[in-house]
Write a structure and sequence with these properties.
Largest sheet: 4 strands, mixed
CATH class: Alpha Beta
Number of strands: 8
Strand order of the largest sheet: 1-4-3-2
Helix content: 10-25%
Distance between the termini: 33 Å
Number of helices: 2
Structural class: alpha/beta
Order of helices and strands: EHEEEEHEEE
CATH superfamily: 2,3-Dihydroxybiphenyl 1,2-Dioxygenase, domain 1
Mean pLDDT: 92
Radius of gyration: 16 Å
Strand content: 25-35%
């Protein structure tokens, strides 16, 4: 087995197909404080970033999207985003709840801790995990 240095250096962006383009973009921008990079009306797509990771949101063409089932589909199980503090994790939970979005579980210890995480769904139904590793 080759133990060479990886040829990649991390994620540049993640592309997600969404059923509610504007609402999904607003989730990243208004709830999480991300910035819009640009729009492409021909895709249509909205590109957003937190300054480290870019997420490309593509609008689904179907009016009847097929939602991901984590136990039966091949594909993205969830997107996990790092959070800087437990307080930030609580803030995200409060904002997601106030926006009326589905929270799968609120901030809680991951196994025996000290890491905490939560899971919710953005407006198009994609599972998003927020995880905080205390420093």
């Amino acid at each position: 087995m080759n133990q060479s240095t990886p040829i990649t250096t991390g994620a540049h962006h993640v592309g997600l197909t969404v059923s509610r383009l504007e609402e999904s973009a607003c989730f990243f921008i208004n709830v999480l404080g991300w910035s819009e990079v640009r729009r492409d009306s021909e895709y249509p797509a909205i590109f957003v970033t937190d300054g480290v990771l870019m997420v490309t949101l593509w609008e689904a063409k179907s009016n009847s999207p097929v939602f991901f089932n984590r136990k039966e589909n091949i594909g993205l199980h969830h997107l996990a985003l790092s959070v800087g503090s437990f307080e930030d994790l609580d803030t995200i939970h409060n904002k997601v709840s106030a926006a009326g979005l589905k929270v799968e579980f609120p901030p809680e210890l991951l196994r025996d801790g000290p890491v905490k995480h939560m899971m919710c769904y953005e407006p198009s139904g994609i599972r998003i995990e927020f995880i905080c590793i205390p420093r």
